[in-house]
Design brief:
The complex is a heterotetramer, with 2 copies of chain A (228 residues) and 2 copies of chain C (209 residues). With 228 residues, chain A is of the alpha/beta class. Chain A is 21% helix and 27% strand. Chain C contains 5 helices and 12 strands. Classes of the chains: A alpha/beta (228), C alpha/beta (209). Chains A and D meet through helix 4, helix 5 and helix 6 of A and helix 3 and helix 4 of D. Strand 5 of chain A pairs antiparallel with strand 5 of chain B.
Amino acid sequence: MDKVMASAAAAVADVGSGSTVMVSGFGPPGQPEALVTALLESGATDLTIINNNAGAGGVAISALFAAKRVRKVVCSFPKAIESTIFDDLYRAGELELELVPQGTLAERIRAGSAGIPAFYTPTGYGTQLAEGKETMVIDGRPCVLERALRADVALIRAHRADPSGNLVYRKTARNFGPIMAGAATTTVAEVGGIVALGALDPEHVVTPGALVHRIVVGADTGPTTGAV
Amino acid sequence: MDKVMASAAAAVADVGSGSTVMVSGFGPPGQPEALVTALLESGATDLTIINNNAGAGGVAISALFAAKRVRKVVCSFPKAIESTIFDDLYRAGELELELVPQGTLAERIRAGSAGIPAFYTPTGYGTQLAEGKETMVIDGRPCVLERALRADVALIRAHRADPSGNLVYRKTARNFGPIMAGAATTTVAEVGGIVALGALDPEHVVTPGALVHRIVVGADTGPTTGAV
Amino acid sequence: MTWNRKQIAARVAQDIPDGAYVNLGIGIPTMVADHVPAGRELVLHTENGMLGMGRAAAADEVDVDLINAGKVYVVEEPGASYFHHADSFALIRGGHLSYCVMGAYQVGQNGDLANWRTDDDDVIPGVGGAMDLAVGARHVFVAMDLFSRSGVCKIVPTCTYPLTAPGCVERVYTDWGVFRPLGDHVEIVELADGVDAAELRARGGGVFG
Amino acid sequence: MTWNRKQIAARVAQDIPDGAYVNLGIGIPTMVADHVPAGRELVLHTENGMLGMGRAAAADEVDVDLINAGKVYVVEEPGASYFHHADSFALIRGGHLSYCVMGAYQVGQNGDLANWRTDDDDVIPGVGGAMDLAVGARHVFVAMDLFSRSGVCKIVPTCTYPLTAPGCVERVYTDWGVFRPLGDHVEIVELADGVDAAELRARGGGVFG
């Protein structure tokens, strides 16, 4: 089984306009720059982007916003110190924003991959962000019902892959990659390098290959610690 | 921070009668034999045990059942080919059984550690095991509401620990350990050996030390693969 | 001539495509792994936390920490990975396994599956991961003998045993042939050579039309 | 004399016991790490997937894949670990962090916390992990200047800004001293040397009794 594709362009060629796209990353670490650049170049538009920072920290994703390819953003923190692209579009009414507490965002994505359609959390109860949501008091604690998030495609970044899609990550670049893997119909992983099947220690694999459909080689960010 | 205790007896000394106790393991791999033996020797009784197999595969946990220390079992598969202890007690009406589908059991335990008080799952809908439970149709799929499981103490088995409680596991002995860690007021890890702080690669730690309160050295089951 | 257990397993294996992620239950389903056609690669999942499970371990290969869900010592395939129980069932429930193959006590003509307890109250019930697999795997296959030891057809108009999951079974592979539950009846996909379709219909309580 | 930011951070650090797992927000909270009393060890958590976070990285120590939640390059402490975002917030929500220290726009006398948006609709709202930390950490401390730039007391009878979480704040560490929300009023735990309690009460809108 070899899931490695020749180019980022080929890996995102079937992402149509109107798609919902998960993009990993928290700040610069974990941004799949080559994949998002390819998505921009593909011309796909009217996209819904699920990403913690609405582009802060990622050069390519900011360009996607600037090119007005994004209709809606689901994120926890759209503010970017270094950029006013999001702010300008939002104020102009050209972007819809669904603001989600960061832990709820992560858990909703994890639920999407794990086949859990909804869960209760105390986070957000009694706040603006829970308005209109179902609530239940569980063991004396008021909670909010939150739905799983799924996407058409998840673009994630990892450190190394084997050809079957087993992934390992690097430091805080791990962030949303392992939970977005499998939360979309198609999961595409951009990695710093490919290793042979069997070269990853089965104990150290973070994302098993069953969750990854396509692999693309992008820039390498640094050395591997310990065994690969 | 050094969480290593002198003995298994000391690590379970405060587990009182009437406690709810999670015990890791699926078949023999992952059974914390030294801890369960110490629990038996402590004399604690009237226990509720949360364990996938109700003792199948673990010598010590079977002895706990045989000594009539268990009032209730929460598990997915109480049948043991090699033992009739559970069967005899159950038929005699001396044991209460809460049967839970294995994936729901794992997710309820994970929810207990993750602060998710309840979740919906399609598993079990329309079956005996969902009778009396709340249901909801989500995106056209009927689901059952399941509650988080928590315990007074979790007795888990890992391969190596550092003194701060970071854990790595070994092959399929990982099973319930990482999700029971943190799903109880007190988490006690039995390991095959202690390594120095800093000796575990931060990328390879499976259970971070924040989820582990006490460490005990038990038998070693085999060598470590890759970096420690 | 009805098919033997190996032939049933081989027939299942024919219908699982290259690159599939597969969970195999105990009994005939386990034997599917030994009959994968040449050139096809399946990746095996075991509920207790592994993808890339290999064959049963020889005596000198046994690792006490490496078993499958049937508690049999196994070996690793290249590209294997280990994960905890919640992640293992996230793979199942999240639809990331293409196929699971299970045994059954009864299959309804509507695809209902009953494979975790009978009506014998003397048997201690145990469900394991059957309910999760039945709702989670993208394709649920059953492999079993068509008739019970007492000669009763196990594909039934309506399951009388407690359900594992409603309407989940896509195909049933048996010693008599391959069947597909369609709701109001069961389609005969293929019969074992020399099996008598009339006898099948007569013994099938009307489910085969 | 009111306390400066370093003194506020040092006062917070005094109240966090040895062995605590701690999440520190941006601003004064971050400075708590630099004022831990000798002989005490705190393990720092950062939302973006790390326990055992160390200090800010020197120029020659920067690793492009290692930042904290404030997007500052940091280093690893011995015993560190990395995990994904859902596991990171499982630590928070599951009550496995002993303390979190955050800034605030307003704290209610009932412990309500408002620190993610004001009533200025021109500012794009962003919540980050504040709501998760406020309901999840076992002890929620706020560290801030007591008065806004325009001189308005930020400990208030009732929060007028949108809430982050109701009733979660245990203590408030400020340039004027340390305070404890008790519901119908706020207890003065300690005042900075030479601060005038009468002036504090006069400017506090009744919350300090």
